[in-house]
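Journal club prep, notes for RB
We'll compare a predicted complex against what the paper describes. Inputs for the fe (ii) ion case:
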Amino acid sequence: MTRIIQLADIHFGTENPVALEAFEATIKELEPDALAVCGDLTQRGKRSEFADARDWLDRFDIPRLVVAGNHDTPLLNIYERVVSPFERHDSYFEDLSGPVELEGAYLIGMNTSRGWQTRKNWAEGSVNLEDLESVIAEAEGPASHGKAVFLICHHPFLSPPEAPMRTATRRGRRASRRLAQSPVGFLLTGHVHAPSVTVVDDEAKSYVAVSSGTLSTRIRTRPASFNLIELKQEACDVTVYNLHGDRFVPEKPHKLSPEYNHAEPHVTAAAGPYEGSKS
Ligand SMILES: [Fe+2]
């Protein structure tokens, strides 16, 4: 069995010390094979916040994959945001940019965050379709053969149906269709600060979109949480761990079979109410 812990939106600067301490205790019990960190490690993209995030992640002596979130660019330094938005992030985390190869899984990271955009809300995601093709080429390559392939990003491609906020990831719908038709089986994301498991269908093919909650104090409608993903022979369990007091408590697992004949919500990448892209 392969066990991956998915966490997101730690937001050092507004981190939740109780959640971080409880996470450390829980991870010792769960003994995961890897950590997938889905962006927003900092609140304002400050060097001190990146340093704290790195120190904390270095407490876990297992493979880790880290991608940047929209908060991981200098908040007030417009020059840096335009010219080199993720230089700071990369100086702390480039060695954790993946891929991560495990016995049963192959993890690839892709940046969907931007320092600035030609639209009002710079916090929204944007998929570079060439980047996505590189990911898919890697997923089709020999290194990931016979393994479950995970794509790690900050922004969901389509707005998660149960999330407390709507997202509008650029080229999200096209990216979603492409992902469903590719060997990538899972898209792990953060940003919305709420956990969810959704099957995204496109013409009889699909992928599983898994959103993680936050480990920060910036909670919206749900408590601080993270996800445990367990890959078994023919199935996969996704379990949300919620912070209750000073410890994490698991919810009933989402049980995913290869046929997806389970109770998770299905959304379609081709049409429907969950439009995630305006372009
Ligand atoms: Fe975010």
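Talking point for the session: Residues 2-268 form a domain with the Purple Acid Phosphatase; chain A, domain 2 fold (CATH 3.60.21.10).
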